[in-house]
Model the fold of this input.
Amino acid sequence: MEKRILVIDDDEGVAWVIRKTLEPFGHEVVVKTTIKAGLKALDKFSLILLDLVLPDGNGIEALQEIRVFNPNALVIIVTAHGRMESAVDAMKEGAYDYLEKPFDIDELKIVVEKAFRDISMREELLKLRQTKEETKSSEIVGKSKGMLKVFKEIGRVAPRDVTVMISGESGTGKELVARAVHNNSRRKFGSFIAINSASIPGELLEAELFGWEKGAFTGASEKTSGKIQAADGGTLFLDEISELNIDLQAKLLRFLQEKEYSPLGSSKIIKADVRIIGATNKDLMSCVKNGTFREDLYYRFNVIEIRIPPFRDRRDDIVPLARHFLKESVKTFELPPKDFSKDAEKALEEYDWPGNVRELENTIKRTSILSRDSVIERRDLFSNDYNSCSVKEFLEEKLTGFLTEMKKLDKSNLYETVISEVEKALFSIVLNETEGNQVGAAKILGINRNTLSKKMKEYRVYDKNN
Done:
């Protein structure tokens, strides 16, 4: 790891001391004497020493800008005796530590080395998390106009620590978008905790979020932290927030406003630095109008909304995403290489995918495992949908295994056996459908009634005495 330090301070004496102290230990120190010059060089440094009083502005305001444009950088405040109150304010704004002028050389070395150790540990933790999640389908694939708009919105909101609402139909990938916001924010070194509000009974959801004290309710045998505490320093993703009950909505609103909460069965106030991202597949304003969602919470969540278009409105993304899922499935299930035929790709694009990305992913996983050939055909994708494949394709699929076994016999009478079995099955199905009405059955089959009667006797089809 490169140990580069940016010093934003107009005091030449301070800059000289910092250089003389740190450069012998392999640190590269770059000094800028104004906020403007420092912000221009910002992206090249992971550690910044910032004075609170500068010729072109206030150090607190400079810190706020640094948090936006380089949220991963650690900032050490350099302050004089009379600025200690401002140093405390700076710590509240996210400063890593502070040094008091005139500072002790040994203290400077200790604080800087500690900062670089924390940066190194943070990067290692991020690598471990990324490795752990490699097996998950966490990549957002898309080139349609609708998804490019989503990507731009992720880029705009991720660095700004505001509440975000993600809306879209079920299965569109709302959690993936939430993860992308988290992974591109200053919170990416913290935890990403996801909870589905619809999957947990209302009376248990409050405990799941805020935790509880021992004895808070029946079965609470020990003190337990909630999801908010687990997400401290990171992001909490609340899926299907429209399912929160009104009482819990009030408590969540308080947390969003004050960044504090009380576990069940406790009067203790706990602070937590958590970014909340909500998601819904419903029209929340309609929920507000019918009284099932608080209006004040709606406006608190709706600071920024990212809308994910359904699959039917982004058909350009279907085949690339299908290929992505196929590649993942081949790797995960240790399968031989597979690809789609042109006809299969056409079928993928023509289908409306009412279940959106989730339905496509499940379809590709199933198909990758069940298809026997290296090229996936239309019939492989929609094996349960008879309207999606021709009669010829359907029969080929069903007869393949049967014919393989028949060919092993010396005298299989293959043609006669197959034709008679197909006719017998067909006549039986149609006659059952018409409840034995031969006129109706002959009409459906498109044959003469006498021919049908003859075949019925030959195959003993729909003979109640059989």
The mean pLDDT is 85. DSSP finds 20 helices and 16 strands in the chain.
